[in-house]
Amino acid sequence: MQLAQLNIAQAKYDLDAPQIKDFVDNLDIVNATAEDNPGFVWRLKDDSGSATSTQIFNDPNMLVNMSIWRDVDSLKDFMFRTHHKDFMRRKGEWFHKLEHENYVMWWIEDNHIPTIEEALYPLH
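Request: output the structure for the sequence above.
Response:
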C-alpha cells in the first residue's frame, strides 16, 4: 500500500501577479525536491511539469496538488524537512484560508494512480 494525498488551495492572486511571484518561481524547485525524495512515487502534472493549469473548479485560482508517497514518513519528510517547509510557513501570504476541507490522504494499492474524482470523493 502507498499513501495518496490531494490538497486544494485558493490563491489570493492570479498566478502572474507580482504578489505571488515568489511562490510561482519556486514551484519547479519544490517539485524537484519532492521527486528527489526516496519515498516519492508520483505527482499530478501537465505537459509543463506543473499541476497549476489543472482546473477542477470554476475558479481558476483554485489550485490542486496530488501525489503518491511510499508511506507517511516520506511525505512528512518532504513537507517538514525540506525547502517545502519554508513555503508552508508563507502560505497565508499567497492563499486564502478555506472554510471547508482542503486535503485528503488515503491508502491505495501499489501501482494505482488515482483520479482527481477518486480523491475528491471523501471531501463531498
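The CA atoms of residues 15 and 24 lie 7 Å apart.
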